[in-house]
Amino acid sequence: MNEDIAWAATGRHRFRAVMMATFAALALLLAMVGVFGILAYSVQQRRREFGVRIALGASAADVLRLVLFNSTRLIVAGMVIGLSSAAALGQLVASFLFGVKPLDPVTFVGVAVVLAITAAIASAAPALRASHVDPAVALRND
Length: 142
Hints:
The structure is a single chain. The chain is mostly helical. It has one domain (26-141). 82% of the residues lie in helices and 0% in strands. The chain is built from 6 helices and no strands. It has helices spanning 2-9, 11-45, 47-55, 60-89, 105-131, 135-141. Helix 3 packs across helix 6 and helix 4 (60-89) packs antiparallel against helix 5. The chain is elongated.
């Protein structure tokens, strides 16, 4: 009986938490698709360049490192802008945060780690595709 009362009393807060978690998961998925799309397009546009690099002696690891370095710059810039915006706007959502300060370092570090892992996963396929470009095909197609 006490559990039913507690369940009913916390229903609205639970619903908000589930909605926030759902929207957060969707935002993370959209970010992952966005990073993948941008990098895949960039790799497609630079396919000839990768073919020339490989033809001139660059290894697959060199091309992989080049693509990952460029994606890391993009990801870090986005994380800096996003985390700075979150810190600036944290006071606006302070009423929704129960037991967490608006500038909680654990939350900010956790978000950065999750975003870094997600971006690394999204960057892997385009980077691998760039490192396996066949120079003959890349130079012949254009």
